[in-house]
Design brief:
It is a single chain. By secondary structure, this protein is mainly alpha-helical. The protein has one domain. The chain contains 4 helices and no strands. Helix 2 packs across helix 3. The longest helix has 20 residues. The structure holds zinc ion. The site of zinc ion has 6 residues, from helix 1 and helix 3. Zinc ion binds next to helix 1 and helix 3.
């Protein structure tokens, strides 16, 4: 699996929708590619914080670390 393929499969991976074999390729690539590991981690974090921010009544939690906000904004700028 290449980095590009991994990113294409990312949503399905996180949703648990990947077939077993693709899941294995995905995990193998994550095991050998630090860049994709970083990408996966920041993506998960972005999704998590994105859900918090989108709470209809909650608003923006006060305890979001500054660097996390920076990461999200950077990801948005990059079109991720
Ligand atoms: Zn990769």
């Amino acid at each position: 699996m290449t980095c590009k393929e991994l990113i294409a499969f990312l949503m399905d991976y996180l949703d648990g929708d990947l077939p077993d074999e693709e899941m294995r390729h995905f995990d193998e690539h994550i095991g050998i590619c630090p860049e994709c590991t970083d990408y996966l981690e920041s993506y998960k974090e972005t999704v998590r914080v994105g859900k918090m921010i989108c709470q209809p009544d909650g608003g923006l939690p006060a305890d979001i670390p500054e660097d996390l906000v920076t990461t999200i904004l950077a990801a948005r700028r990059a079109g991720a």
